[in-house]
């Protein structure tokens, strides 16, 4: 149904646009302010030295955000061209989407991968920003930038709890930054990127590049993400609880999106092993077919063969066993 497909497309665009707007208001405006928590005078967990602006970190924001935004694009282009260049001209050139759009299968998969990734990235940012605004958790260096007047507060020798919002005398910008630590945004974004790409690599590479290539690259990405969180604690920018909560948030969103958007049990995708009367669908995905009748794909007909495959020359699946030339449905849906 053309109208239904267009409506769903517009609905998805509206959701993505709303997500971008929320990120903009959380990151670049003062529309939302963090909760102002009190503190205990001379609390040892809040008296770490001020590490300075984020640009002085070992992992500055410009590098972190450049990697988070650029690495998926580079990686997906490399894999798509590497694993599709050999049989690109043997495959169907277009995929009909709702009788309104004609899209190259490679373009479709690229847009889908990057679209889901960007949506998850913005969603992670929104979840983390919301947690920071609601909790108002104090950074390990909070008292160093707050610079409270202990004499005026009457807590020279006692561990008095201070809840006055005007008890700080330091720079307002530094104080505002020190109230936004839980969960840690850098840890969340880095682990979201690592888990999302690791699952993509394991699905696309598998054992085709060797048994250790996929796990090596995946574990390297996850290790770098974990080191990013450890660095936040080592520089006294976040507590351990902030980093763990951020990493859990980023990893959970990545796994959820991968499981939801790339499940092999989606409509039109097969959970049956290929080579057992399988065929390739209109969008380049392998699906289960009826073994006793021809299957129509686009304008070509696939006839059942005695060896369990399908003939007809669609998508490179000629007179061979399907599993020899068609990757599994879960793999083809990613790559």
From TrEMBL:
GO terms for cellular component: plasma membrane. Residues 114-258 form the Phosphatidic acid phosphatase type 2/haloperoxidase domain. SMART domains: acidPPc (SM00014). It is a multi-pass membrane protein. Pfam families: PAP2. Its main location: membrane. It is found in: Membrane. One of its GO terms (biological process) is phospholipid metabolic process. The keyword Transport does not apply. Gene3D superfamilies: Phosphatidic acid phosphatase type 2/haloperoxidase. Keywords: Membrane, Transmembrane, Transmembrane helix. The chain crosses the membrane at residues 7-25, 62-83, 113-134, 187-205, 212-231, 243-262. One of its GO terms (molecular function) is phosphatidate phosphatase activity. PANTHER family: LIPID PHOSPHATE PHOSPHATASE, PHOSPHATIDIC ACID PHOSPHATASE TYPE 2_HALOPEROXIDASE DOMAIN-CONTAINING PROTEIN. Belongs to the PA-phosphatase related phosphoesterase family. This is Phospholipid phosphatase related 5. It comes from Amphilophus citrinellus. The lineage of its organism: Eukaryota, Metazoa, Chordata, Craniata, Vertebrata.
């Amino acid at each position: 149904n053309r109208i239904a497909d267009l409506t769903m497309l517009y609905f998805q665009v509206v959701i993505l646009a709303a997500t971008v707007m929320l990120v903009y208001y959380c990151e670049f405006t003062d529309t939302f302010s963090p909760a102002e928590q009190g503190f205990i005078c001379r609390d040892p967990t809040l008296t770490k030295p001020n590490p300075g602006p984020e640009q002085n970190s070992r992992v500055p924001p410009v590098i972190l955000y450049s990697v988070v935004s650029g690495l998926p694009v580079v990686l997906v282009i490399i894999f798509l061209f590497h694993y599709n260049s050999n049989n690109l001209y043997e495959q169907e050139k277009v995929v009909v989407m709702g009788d309104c759009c004609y899209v190259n299968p490679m373009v479709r998969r690229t847009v889908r991968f990057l679209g889901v990734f960007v949506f998850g990235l913005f969603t992670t940012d929104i979840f983390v920003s919301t947690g920071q605004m609601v909790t108002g958790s104090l950074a390990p260096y909070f008292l160093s930038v707050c610079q409270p007047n202990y004499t005026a507060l009457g807590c020279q020798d006692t561990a008095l709890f201070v809840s006055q919002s005007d008890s700080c005398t330091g720079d307002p910008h530094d104080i505002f930054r020190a109230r936004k630590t839980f969960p840690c945004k850098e840890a969340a974004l880095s682990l979201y990127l690592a888990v999302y790409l690791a699952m993509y690599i394991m699905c696309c590479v598998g054992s085709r590049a060797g048994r250790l290539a996929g796990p090596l690259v995946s574990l390297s990405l996850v290790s770098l993400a974990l080191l990013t969180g450890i660095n936040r604690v080592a520089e006294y920018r976040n507590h351990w609880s902030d980093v763990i909560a951020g990493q859990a948030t980023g990893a959970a969103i990545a796994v959820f999106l991968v499981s939801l958007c790339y499940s092999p049990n989606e409509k039109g995708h097969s959970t049956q092993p290929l080579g057992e009367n399988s065929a390739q669908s209109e969008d380049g995905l392998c699906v289960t077919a009826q073994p006793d009748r021809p299957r129509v794909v686009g304008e070509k007909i696939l006839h059942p063969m005695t060896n369990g495959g399908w003939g007809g020359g669609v998508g490179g699946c000629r007179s061979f066993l399907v599993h020899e030339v068609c990757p599994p449905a879960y793999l083809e849906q990613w790559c």
